[in-house]
Amino acid sequence: MNKKWITLWVIALVLISIIGSFFGKYNILVTMEESVNTAWAQVENQYQRRYDLIPNIVASVKWEANFEKSTLEAVVQARASATKTTINVNDAKEMAEFQKEQTWISQALSRLLMVTENYPNLKANQAFADLRVSLEWTENRISTERMRYNEEVQKFNVFTRTFPNNIVASIFWFEKKSLFENTNWAEVAPNVEF
């Protein structure tokens, strides 16, 4: 074999390995992005669980007590506002608005549950007590799923920003994902007393 053929083979092998690496990185990006999307779906799943609990809690409170109308209306309005929101997790502004609405729901539920302390019959009602426990469990799951989502986003964002992955990411328009962050309007967690 002459030098010309050897040089062509070396060049071909180098090109094949570069192309293989390129597509390998692309596949990793797709896999990581799907992990982020799955983690976000779990966050939404837990929020949906909370949304589904709210009407039951409101109905229990209405049934048991001549309750403060403004508190009930605040909970119902916060739920209605949050459930009509669709969110693009790549958009930091939409993510911040979504987080704000979730905080409003938490605060409204917190006020509702604090006011229920004034109603002994309601506190003694087993169905209402079960709803409160379910709500507490759901709030814990929301926190856990947000943490998992942020972990997946962090892995994705680090991978897409490191060289040479950033080249592949920019070619195929993989964008940085938004974290679910604690912002200044949510510095203090709502106090939900059971």
Descriptive overview:
With 194 residues, the protein is an all-alpha fold. The protein has one domain (3-186): LemA-like domain (de novo design (two linked rop proteins)). It has six helices and no strands. Mean pLDDT is 80; it is low at 184-194.
Could you give a short description of this structure?
The protein is mainly alpha-helical and 194 residues long. Helix content is 77%, strand content 0%.
Strand residues, percent: under 5%
The CATH class label is: Mainly Alpha
Number of domains: 1
Helix proportion of residues, in percent?
over 70%
- What is the CATH architecture term? Up-down Bundle
Give a count of the beta strands, DSSP E runs of length 2 or more. Answer: 0
**Elements, N to C (H/E):** HHHHHH
Instruction: Tell me the span between the first and last alpha carbons.
Output: 83 Å
- The overall average pLDDT, rounded, is 80
**Can you say what the CATH homologous superfamily is?**
LemA-like domain
Structural class: mainly alpha
SS summary, helix count: 6
Question: What is the rounded Rg?
Answer: 25 Å
Q: Catalogue the unreliable spans.
A: 184-194
Give the overall silhouette: rod-shaped
Largest sheet: none
